[in-house]
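Deviation from plan, reported transparently: 3-methylbenzoic acid complex.
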Amino acid sequence: MLSAVAAHHMKLNVPVSDFDPYAEEVLRDPWPYYQELREKGPAVWLERYSVLAFFRHEQVHAILSDPYTYCSSAGVGLTNFRTETPWRKPSIILEADPPEHGRTRKVVARILSPAWINKLRPTFEREAEKLVDKVLNKGTFDAATDFCEAYPLKVFADAVGLPAEGRENLLPYGDMVFNGFGPINERFKERMGTSGQAVQWIAEVCRRESLTKDGLGADLYAAADAGELTHEEAGMLVRTLLSAGLDTTVFTLCNAMLCFAKHPDQWETLRENPSMARQAIEEVLRYEPTFHSFYRTTTKQVEIAGITVPESQKVVVFIASANRDAQRWEDPDRFDIRRRASGNLAFGTGIHGCAGQMMARLEGDILLSALARKMHSIELVGTPIHHFNNTVRGYTSIPVKTTPNK
Ligand code: OVV
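Because the crystal trials were delayed, the predicted structure below was used instead.
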């Protein structure tokens, strides 16, 4: 806990705000709030949560690049694991610091590396063609459920080696994990109350016996056989794949579909150049990043942007805000697939930068280029339903009408 003196000291030195990042009106449209908060100064004290918040690209990047000062082992959510009990056993990769983090990260990085996952490409492409044909055949469909959920639930879950039955537990489990990085609010409690079965199912399928012999899950257990991990750790890292790999890619695809439905000129550009799919996904990630924020905890007193931050202070970095910082991006509120969007912080950066980012790009690239080759137009035919979550941003429903290429 921060001492009263330290809190007082900090309030004297940085602007104070009653901003609530978890309020529905903020989650629905955070951009005007972020702009105002970026303009207040390099850091803002969020009095509702007693955390120091960073909204500018410069500090967000600096904090994520210094894991020794801004650690993850006290949790990457609002909960401080040193003083409060986390709702689940901490992740041995996400919620770990060097040097321990390096051992688990090395194994996960290998099985999610381009070289390793490229063997999935033919299967992912075949499934993308099938799914695109199916929805274009329907014409009118829900892009969130019929398309953006359907694809990762098939291809990623298959790649990990999960059984076909029970996959309906994956998104509720992820929703709980990502709500769990925020405050213990009604949103978290409600999800917690309905997800007991999902927790149970996840624990079950992380066991070696539940997984196929040729998937990423089996690869983690093979690393344990080779002495790189314990077998229990292999199971924990399967849990990481299932926590971090579904809701995230589903929501990224949702955000992509909505970006193109709302920007028909950009769709036209992509349709004329399907090979731009990968760069288009990058701009979707910059413009509508799937994460709004993440936390770190200081390991010592530190100076940043002239502010003295005490030891053991929770800091929150708004990566979504950093991605729209005019100091870093020209015309940041413009969705433009031709821009150079690399360097955006949607996947974080540094040693904890998303280990699955090549998998996410592979899925997005393949699905978007299949669409670009087959779909002429996409149009919203109803109001999209936002999915409110304490960490990630996406949709529950996106009613669309599409026309195929002639
Ligand atoms: C990046 C991420 C998100 C959620 C869960 C985990 C990782 C994990 O390691 O469990």
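Residues 91, 93-94, 177, 239-240, 243-244 surround 3-methylbenzoic acid (CB under 6 Å). We consider this an acceptable substitute for the interim report.
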